[in-house]
Amino acid sequence: MSDRSATASAPVAIEVREVRKSFPVQAERLTTLKERLVKPSAWLRQEAEKLEALREISFDVNRGEFFGVIGRNGCGKSTLLKLLASIYSLDGGSIRVAGRLAPFIELGVGFNHELTARDNVLLNGVMMGLSPAEARARYDVVIDFAELHEYTNLKLKNYSSGMQVRLAFALMMQADADILLVDEVLAVGDVAFQEKCIDSLERMKRSGGTIVLVTHDMGAIQSHCDRAMMIEHGEVEAIGDPAVVSARYLQLVFAPEEEMEAAPLDTGPERGAEFTAAWLTDGEEARVEAVSAGEPVMVNLTVRAHGDIPRLQALLELVNNPEGVVIARFPIGYGGEIPPISAGEELTMRVSLDASGLRPGSYRFHYHLGTADRLYDRSSEPLALRITGADPGESLVDLSHRIEIEGGPPEGDEG
Ligand SMILES: Nc1ncnc2c1ncn2[C@@H]1O[C@H](COP(=O)(O)OP(=O)(O)O)[C@@H](O)[C@H]1O
Ligand SMILES: [Mg+2]
Questions:
Q1: What are the structural domains, with CATH classification, of the chain?
Q2: Which is the closest atom of ligand 1 to the Cα of 234?
């Protein structure tokens, strides 16, 4: 029932109609205790025979559009890109793609890990049908962009994932494609390189290219995308204005659950106090949005009082992105450490964190302001923090711990 065809002159670059995709669920897929604890819903779903990754998705991407795709983990974003790139076959519906498409979806695909970066890039050029001279010219551009001059003779198996991202992205930009599909693999690279990638995507768009970008970075969605689409449980939840769609996403991911949230928000003219500024700084007190794993980071919150408040309280929450799991809460002023504040006064609270326990990845801080029984204000936009560094490990945080077992045979009794 599926239909895939290309037309050269349509204003629509990608047309998706009623696309469905399911995966068989294997009973033994989740076997360890850790997996059951980490993914209880997936474990429960073992009962079902198949997992509906995309239920019935329809949308268009126009030619020349920078189109953002967002949604929580497991909502079906990567599945959608793989369907667009013909990596997966459709269960139903149709996809039409007008133009040459280059995917940047999974790391390592298309590379030979036993070969050096140099040979991989040259081989890739030859496979694209380039002459040796053309392949050589492209090679220089690719290595320049990737800034990997010192590592061209290193076998790819010895490349870090960040280096592979650089190489793969640089290669994709040289593929002469009309449409780029970019999954969030970019997040593996460092912040400076991510910005460089976004810049080159912008350039590609200005020269008439079409970009479909999957990201959890709502800042990128709002500053670069013409339109955004949010997927939730395999369906289109929202599509259109990036500001509206990303607000919907934040609303969903950061759904209120904290007891302070339960208090009605006091936003009337006699609101007691409000946040006037929130920012992150590093060990040198310079403003940052990202720090390397292991470096200190400080959350600064400035508050202005509109009335006299003897005992102000604030609550800072650290949320893992994109899962939206609250991994730490920092109550401020619960022990009376905020001095009484009078109308018109401002004060700044600083929470210094030793982020050495945080895995590389993206995080957000939410903050709330109130008293024991009132909620005056809360973060309208969370503060984003990126921890850069090597590959994320298995857990969200790296808590030092010790395991002790009691019982069993007495000492010396080794039969
Ligand atoms: N190859 C696969 N086999 C089985 N299940 C898959 C496969 N790929 C994705 N899934 C499942 O489909 C759902 C959507 O996954 P995915 O598209 O990767 O989500 P996202 O990229 O939005 O995080 C998830 O529940 C995931 O476990
Ligand atoms: Mg994905």
A1: 3-253 (3.40.50.300), 259-388 (2.70.50.60)
A2: 14
